From TrEMBL:
<dbReference type="GO" id="GO:0009686">
    <property type="term" value="P:gibberellin biosynthetic process"/>
</dbReference>
<dbReference type="GO" id="GO:0010241">
    <property type="term" value="P:ent-kaurene oxidation to kaurenoic acid"/>
</dbReference>
<keyword id="KW-0349">Heme</keyword>
<dbReference type="InterPro" id="IPR036396">
    <property type="entry name" value="Cyt_P450_sf"/>
</dbReference>
<protein>
    <recommendedName>
        <fullName>Ent-kaurene oxidase</fullName>
    </recommendedName>
</protein>
<keyword id="KW-0479">Metal-binding</keyword>
<dbReference type="GO" id="GO:0009707">
    <property type="term" value="C:chloroplast outer membrane"/>
</dbReference>
<keyword id="KW-1133">Transmembrane helix</keyword>
<comment type="similarity">
    <text>Belongs to the cytochrome P450 family.</text>
</comment>
<dbReference type="GO" id="GO:0016709">
    <property type="term" value="F:oxidoreductase activity, acting on paired donors, with incorporation or reduction of molecular oxygen, NAD(P)H as one donor, and incorporation of one atom of oxygen"/>
</dbReference>
<feature type="binding site" description="axial binding residue">
    <location>
        <position position="450"/>
    </location>
    <ligand>
        <name>heme</name>
    </ligand>
</feature>
<dbReference type="InterPro" id="IPR002401">
    <property type="entry name" value="Cyt_P450_E_grp-I"/>
</dbReference>
<dbReference type="GO" id="GO:0005783">
    <property type="term" value="C:endoplasmic reticulum"/>
</dbReference>
<keyword id="KW-0560">Oxidoreductase</keyword>
<dbReference type="GO" id="GO:0020037">
    <property type="term" value="F:heme binding"/>
</dbReference>
<dbReference type="InterPro" id="IPR017972">
    <property type="entry name" value="Cyt_P450_CS"/>
</dbReference>
<dbReference type="InterPro" id="IPR044225">
    <property type="entry name" value="KO_chloroplastic"/>
</dbReference>
């Protein structure tokens, strides 16, 4: 596949390119049978016959490989993944054009076999194609949980979550001041508690699962609904790249995915049924499940999938962002001091609340810089170009897959100075208006922007501020450069271990 520059496009010449000359005749119905000549500038990554570029992506960190290729072939190029071709976008400007201006032409999701199984063929807000179903369920989640009014309903629960974490930190420090504590373990437990309360109306400690014929613990619920799902979501089925061979069984992949999906479904069904009994007793609560049941417009499968989506999305990405933020804050004591001073100047002896967030610009810069440097979702799930469109001056034919490399956009040296460095100050230099603070696109853009962006910011920013207000943070010795991630995610490979020193309250 070639990318055809539009009439007014400005082409930046890559280090390697091929120029093809085609002779194209106008349609016979036209009066003028003039021969037209077009130059096709094909910025394509060289690959192997049949495999294309698959062998170059075997390390399972494609976002990093795509970024390296962008330095050679430019911000938009073509790759071959077996029998398919895909356009990869590595520029903020081009990605925003795709997600906003050209949304109507590329709004369809292209899911892997693993994601198709886990999401029951797009029965979720985040993975459904843009249409009536997507609009309806996004309205549901915004109204009941993630919009402004929904956030107000759960504010006390978020405050309790942060108070509990700080209480646990103080206990651990008092028990052994010289031992590093595992940040992820504390944050994970409280964030999962919040996700359960929001989704189900209760912090579930255990549940009887009929298919297992036993009661499972909260830890087992967490693994079945969050951890196992995240690991399965990045499983690769080679048949995704060779559809004409889909008749060949891939039994190990299918067994692993279907077993994990079946376990998730059984656990979620048990959780929902447990809450339905509560509702039948007349014990209505403020929760996503109660809201959806009151609407009474969904099938049982849709209800299960939407409630599960609320659990997993609240319990994962916010953890990833906050853990990276505290790693960077602990690694850079001078930036930690600056943040602490800002908190002191704005809040004094008062505890930081969500009401203070708009008056803490450096805190907001810390949050957005963490999203830029450690975007929780490095690759937007591929989209499908369903009608011919022009993007960045290139004609993209219908049928093309499109991959938006957020990691590559946020590491693009044309958009960011010293992109490898974590520098919150870059968001305070006057270049960014308040409305443009989402330049990192960690929450997407346009009509497919993440529904949970407000909650993620409320939780993460308030937690970061409270943590720095209460403690001085220092990394465990030797952890300064432990920034490895798990395959194609940006989840830290090694949990964050830190030393905390309580700050004296004035």
């Amino acid at each position: 596949m070639c990318l055809l520059p539009g009439r007014n496009s400005r082409i930046t010449k890559p280090k390697f390119y091929q120029v093809y000359l085609f002779e194209i005749f106008s349609l016979s119905e036209q009066k003028d049978e003039t021969l037209k000549l077009f130059y096709f500038f094909h910025a394509a990554v060289p690959g192997l016959p049949l495999l294309g570029n698959l062998h170059q992506l075997k390390e399972k960190k494609p976002h990093q490989t795509f970024t390296k290729w962008a330095e050679i072939y430019g911000p938009i190029y073509t790759i071959k993944t077996g029998a398919s071709s895909a356009v990869v976008l590595n520029s903020t400007q081009v990605a925003k054009e795709a997600m906003i201006a050209k949304f109507s032409s590329i709004s369809t999701r292209k899911l892997s076999k693993a994601l198709s199984i886990l999401t029951h063929e797009k029965t979720m807000v985040a993975t459904s194609d843009y249409g009536d179903f997507h609009k309806m369920v996004k309205r549901f989640v915004m109204t009941s949980m993630l919009g402004t009014s929904g956030q107000k309903q759960f504010r006390d629960t978020r405050n309790m979550m942060i108070d509990n974490m700080l209480g646990t930190f103080h206990t651990l420090v008092n028990d052994d001041p010289n031992a590093p504590l595992n940040f992820r373990e504390v944050f994970k437990n409280e964030l999962f508690r919040l996700s359960l309360i929001q989704a189900l109306g209760e912090d579930v400690s255990s549940v009887y699962v009929e298919e297992f014929e036993k009661v499972i613990s909260k830890e087992e619920i967490y693994h079945a609904t969050v951890v196992d799902m995240m690991m399965c979501a990045i499983e690769v089925d080679w048949r995704d790249f060779f559809p004409y061979l889909s008749w060949i069984p891939n039994r190990s992949f299918e067994t692993r995915l279907l077993t994990t999906e079946g376990r998730r479904t059984a656990v979620m069904r048990a959780l929902i049924n447990q809450q339905k009994k509560r509702i039948a007793r007349g014990e209505a609560r403020i929760s996503y499940l109660d809201f959806l049941l009151e609407e009474n417009t969904l099938t049982d499968e849709q209800l299960l999938m939407l409630v599960w989506e609320a659990v997993i999305e609240a319990a994962d990405t916010t953890l990833v962002t906050t853990e990276w933020a505290m790693y960077e804050i602990a690694k850079h004591p001078e930036k930690q001091d600056r943040l602490y001073q800002e908190i002191q100047e704005v809040c004094g002896n008062d505890i930081v609340t969500e009401d203070h967030l708009s008056r803490l610009p450096y805190l907001n810069a810390v949050f957005h810089e963490t999203l830029r440097r450690h975007s929780p979702v490095p690759l937007v799930p591929p989209r499908f170009v369903h009608e011919n469109t022009n993007l960045a001056g290139y004609e993209i034919p219908a049928g093309t897959e499109m991959i938006i490399n957020l990691y590559g956009c946020n590491m693009n040296k044309n958009d960011w100075e010293e992109p490898e460095e974590w520098k919150p100050e870059r968001f305070l230099d006057g270049r960014f208006e308040t409305a443009d603070m989402y330049k990192t696109m960690a929450f997407g853009a346009g009509r497919r922007a993440c529904a949970g962006s407000m909650q993620a910011m409320n939780i993460s920013c308030t937690a970061i501020a409270r943590f720095v207000q209460e403690f001085a943070w220092r990394l465990k010795e030797g952890d300064e450069d432990k920034a490895d991630t798990i395959q194609l995610t940006t989840n830290r490979l090694y949990p964050l271990h830190v030393y905390l020193t309580p700050r004296a309250r004035k």
